[in-house]
Amino acid sequence: MISKQALYATTALFCLTAGAAHAQESPASEPARTPGTVAPPVEEGGAEIVVTGVRRSLEDALNTKRNATEVVDSLSSEGVGKLPDLNLAEALQRVPGVQINRSALRRLGSVSIRGLPGGFVATQLNGQPLSSPNVTGFNFGAVRSEAFSRIDVIKAQGADRYSGGVAGVVDLRTGDPLSSRDSLTITVDNSYEELADGFAPGAAVALNQEILDDTLAVRIAGGWKRLNFRDDEVQINAYDRTAGAATPTDSSDDVLVPRQVRLNTNIATGDAYSLSGAVEYRPEPELTIRLGGFYSMYAPDIYNTNFAVESQAASSRTQSNPIDTDDFGRTFTSVRFDDPWVRVDSRELEDRFTTQAYNAEVAWDDGDWTVNAIGHFTRGDRSRETRFFYAVQNPLAGAASNGYSLLVDTGGGNIRDFTYDLIQPRTFVVDLQQPFSAPTLASPRSVNGLASVGQQFQAEGTDEEEGEKEYVARFDVGRRIEWGPLQAIKAGTFYRWAKQQQRFANTTLFGTNLAGLSNSAYDFSSIRGKTDFYYGQLGSFDPADRPEMDTKLLDRLLAPAPNLAALPNSYVGPYGYLYQRMPSLSFDNRQEIYGGYGMVELDGDLAPLLRLRGNAGVRYERTSRSTISAQQPPAINFSFDNWLPSVNLALEYDDQLILRGSYTHTMRRPEVDSFAVGNGRSFASNSVQISLGANELRPFISKNIDLGIEWYNRSGSVLSASYFHKKVTDYAAAQVLCPEDGGSFGFGPLSNVSGLCRTTTPRGADGLFPDLPVGTLVAISQIANQDEFTLKGFEVTAQQNLDFLPAPWDGFGGQMNYTNVQFETESTFRISEISRHTVNAILYYETPRFGVRAAYNYRSGYFLASGGTFTGADRLVEPRPQLDLSGQFNVSDKLTFTAEAFNVTNEDLIEYEGTSERVRSYRSFGRTYTLGARYSF
Fold it and tell me: What residues does the TonB-dependent receptor-like beta-barrel domain cover (predicted)?
């Protein structure tokens, strides 16, 4: 791990170097394009100094930032396709203010911008909307980065940008063929995944070819990567609050003891493909026609196995070694479970993510007028089929001992101090060859065995589909006027039709033949053929202490019965199991969005050496939404209007110093699974729970201020600082209702006493409710726009190349950036994944023959909301650094060999509850090593 002192010292070195260096003119670069324009061809000039590698990538990205009128940070073609990163998400985390979410499985890699997670980030392709196969945000980790020529992270947007990016916009650029040089680059690589102990080959190609001089050109880029990775996890899934007794008790003392310990492993295999293409045709100097497209598929097959041990009422528990955790009381780290609940859990998950987008653009530019017409289609789909198999040993009061004991020490936040010693009988967790009762539709997921010994065999699963598609038509017109700093007036109109949908079904064992079950489904020797766990850091732990189940063998042994498809609201899945549709989780959402914008563009000299650039405008959008739930078929319709003003200004002094200021309004519409149109009811002893639909949920509105200063002290170098402030209103959160007159719920009058809502009159049973006596608790909840929060902070960047120094020191250079984010609200809710501190550092040394790079990323701790029973309750994530190293050797100007190492110091991801000593999860991703070769024709 790189120390903070080393980072501070390096930053100081950059600053001192910047002050000593002579200012130089920055080379020209491709100007940033706005959505309704086509980039002009690049004019070729005189002699050129060719700069490649890491330095080239950083300088190209810096030129994009410098020339933009919006607040933009970028990755260039060199940085996207040639800098060593495992996937696009890993590359994006080098951008100031961008954080990657590593808590998700499958390396999906959603990103946060300035603290706000993926659901607040809009993703575009060449300035047009890009659908996501996942409603929580685009999965950047699922895409091979070579498909793109540049990536812009836009943090302050103009009026001509589509709405949706409250946090910001990630614009994936596929390149302009006529503006690029002819080239063909082929890359092959092979990664060794240390924890998976296996290889993952890959390949990529990028072709740009001019067919007719200055008239017709094509670009094709894409790649393939084999998936073969793994993560291991030690999880304390639950704690009990106790006064020190062996069994859980209610106590006001903040004394916690572990209740459940899990050992998890995820193994992913499969393939990832990404492909983009563009054709650019310019029959006349004023007319350009452009066709483009993008397709990606990410298809991981996930095998998960976990072994869980839990202390229950019929168990005995002994704890020792309490740790004083200051304001969090005490936490026991060492605990012994005797006669615990034991579960073997093995799962197969088949995920398929696809994203596609196609567009056609016609642009006219005669020097005075610009006219653009765009047609665009995009679609994202996800299908997920899962099968879960459990063997469960339940301790029963008064029954004989089940023979299991576990002595565990959680390590108090240090995995090297974690110990796990399991005593188990020389029998199976559950005898799968005993006679089981036949499963019924009334209890489709659980098949009870012999109740006297508390054994169960359980199986369940899901069949999920979600996705969205969108059609876009857009027309823009602009007029150059050159009246002082006022350079142009632009206006545009657009129409968007989008559909989001979700389907959900649960697996049932109904109709299966359990007589074929066999104890051969257990494996006591390895984890999918691997004999280690967590790098062997758990001391004497043996994989035989953690049996798993052979899911593929169980598919054959269960022998599903035929002719089940005729059952109502059910169907037979691909593995022969019966699925029951879940209407409450199945719905369609359609949106029509239309409107327009008007804006002015500024660019002119206010005084000698003083230049003003920027834009100002306003955007209007009208949204009509129609939602149909399978649970409540009538369509629920809702409409709303939004006006979104924006001002982006850059004041430039002597081509070196830029002051930036922006004031913008942005918004985020609710996603399809953020609201439900049906009402849910449930009953328990003396209580009623009602969940109301959220069909009138409005967008979240953010008012944003950005201020920045950038000093381009020399070519390819900058020192910059910026401040941002976002105030988000109409944020959706749950509210509790208790109308005194009872409203229209049929309970009669209600009273709120000490925060509890109760009935005041008795109510007889009917088709909707059972008997409700006086004093029945009534909990009525609704998701509504009611909260607001503020996100503010600052970014600091130092980027310097040291080519003015004498050899060999002239090959050094690098970039460092730091982002600080503060979340404030007067409400009680929290937003996941907001880290207060983020640090990125890239240090390199390059010569014409070889180059080496060290890339460091540090992210401070953050909050994670509960993900269900598998992950347990809400938790916090410890700060995590990561160090990556890479090197390249240029055999010639065409052939380059590369070597990379990721997560060199083998950092874990650690989650905890309240205090780091109260650990909830240790997760290891392992190291990855890659060798590659790149040849350019």
Answer: 455-904
Let me know: does 236 contact 113? Beta carbons within 8 Å.
no
Question: Is residue 412 domain-resident?
Answer: no
Where residue 862 falls (left for φ over 0; alpha for ψ -120 to 50; beta otherwise) is: beta
- Hey, which residues does 497 pair with through a beta bridge? 471, 592
Q: Domain tally for the chain? A: 1
Angle subtended at Cα 75 by Cα 707 and Cα 138, rounded to the nearest 5 degrees: 90
**Which own/partner contact pairs does 535-544 have at CB distance under 8 Å and 24+ positions apart?**
535/195, 535/232, 535/906, 535/924, 535/926, 537/415, 537/416, 537/418, 538/234, 538/418, 538/419, 538/420, 539/419, 539/420, 540/421, 541/420
Integer Cα distance of 295 and 559 in angstroms: 38
- Give the CATH number for residue 925: 2.40.170.20
Q: What is the pLDDT of residue 6?
A: 41
346-397 per-position pLDDT tens digit: 999 999 999 999 999 999 999 999 999 999 999 999 999 999 898 888 887 7
pTM, two decimals, is 0.85
Query: Using an 8 Å Cβ cutoff, are 686 and 778 in contact?
Result: no
Does residue 756 come out as left (phi exceeding 0), alpha (psi in the -120 to 50 range) or beta? beta
Residue type, 317: R
Whole-number pLDDT of residue 794: 95
**Residue 158 banded pLDDT, cuts 50, 70, 90:** very high
Domain range for residue 96?
A: 4-387+466-504+584-936
Environment class of 361 (CB within 10 Å of its CB; exposed 0-12, middle 13-18, buried 19+): buried
Amino acid at 343: R
* 515 is a domain residue: no
Exposure on the CB side of residue 906, measured as CA atoms within 13 A? 13
* Amino acid occupying residue 727: K
User: Would residue 768 count as lying in a domain?
Assistant: yes
Q: Are strands 687-691 and 777-801 parallel, antiparallel or unpaired?
A: parallel
Q: How far apart are CA 720 and CA 710, in angstroms?
A: 4
User: Widest CA span of the chain, in angstroms?
Assistant: 93
- Which phi and psi (to 5°) does residue 804 adopt? -80, -10
Residue 916 resides in a domain: yes
- What are the C-alpha distances in Å from 253 to residues 244, 412, 876? 10, 19, 22
Count of other CB atoms within 10 angstroms of residue 851 = 21
**Residue 546 to residues 8, 231, 532: CA-CA distances in angstroms?**
45, 16, 11
Query: What gap in Å lies between CA 419 and CA 752, rounded to an integer?
Result: 50
CA distance from start to end of the chain: 40
